[in-house]
Amino acid sequence: MRIAVALFKYGFGGAILILIAVYLCGAFLTREIGVEKYEKEFLAATLFWLVGLALAQAASAAAGKRSLAAAQADLATLARVAAEAGTAPEVRFYEGDEVYEATRRAVSQARKRVWVTYLRGEGPARSAAAEKHFQACREWAMRFPGRSFRRIILYCDTPAMSDFYAMELRTALEADDRKRSYHVRLLDGSVHATEAFSVGIYDDVVIFTHNDGPDHVFAFSIRSEKLANQHIREYYNRLWNLEVTRPIQEVFSADDYARR
Questions:
Q1: Where are the transmembrane segments (predicted)?
Q2: Which CATH number covers residue 135?
């Protein structure tokens, strides 16, 4: 009854605005209190009420209270709101150790694919957060068959990268022995020897990372299935299949690096 009164008093457009506000507040609270898994159910409930209001408004139009054209416009508004709510990307920003913590969470939440690049001429930071990130990558790939892990690393013939190459080669060789998907390729070519953004694809989450100086790293993440599955995946596949991108096992021998 109260919903009917609100519909009569404020109209269908007003009711939509109220429910959108309720959804946004509810979605924010679910993330703040750590129950994100219920966000989809909350969105579905909100859309259910919108559908109910649309049907009620259409019935009202049939009774002569509003025109058919107005009811169709309201239904079009409903469709647009539902589409935007379901596809709008989620963007977040991180700095310092938050970057590695965010990528570690993204790895643990991924179920199918973790494809990352490392386009720097220096080894990773030696912080606890960075070590946990790389450990999470190894465990994610080794624990379950059928998962796809890829890493593209810039190839630089410098001592600063030797430890990182050795670590990745050992993991790739272990994955080969255990029939797991942990594939590493080295990207050669001076055109890439700049401080470029590194990118990671974690199912439908894309994280761009950049080192702005030796002691400062920042990143931003975008949750978008379309961005991950269409645009960034195509970019990554092109990079992966370049002639100058070779498996790490072809660049370094096991005798030279695996036992370091």
A1: 7-30, 42-63
A2: 3.30.870.10
* Same-domain check for residues 84 and 141: no
Q: Check residue 180 and give its pLDDT.
A: 92
Average pLDDT over residues 180-193: 79
Domain count for the chain: 2
Tokens of 215: 């002691």
Residues 81 and 109 in one domain: no
Q: What domain range is 61 assigned to?
A: 2-88
Poorest-confidence range of 60-69, 76-85, 149-158, 203-212?
60-69
Nearest-angstrom CA–CA distance, 197 and 119: 7
Last residue of a domain, one of 33, 55, 88: 88
Place of tokens 């790939």: 141
Q: What is residue 180's three-state secondary structure?
A: coil
Cα 201 from Cα 68, distance rounded (Å) = 46
Better-predicted residue by pLDDT, 5 or 23: 23
Could you give the 3-state DSSP secondary structure of residue 221?
strand
List the end-to-end C-alpha distance of the chain, in Å, as a whole number: 74
CB of 135 closer than 8 Å to CB of 129? no
The model's pLDDT over 53-94, given as tens digits with 9 standing for 90+, comes to 444 444 444 444 445 555 456 555 545 544 544 556 788 999
| Phi, psi of 167, rounded to the nearest 5 degrees | -65, -45
**pLDDT beyond 90 at 237:** yes
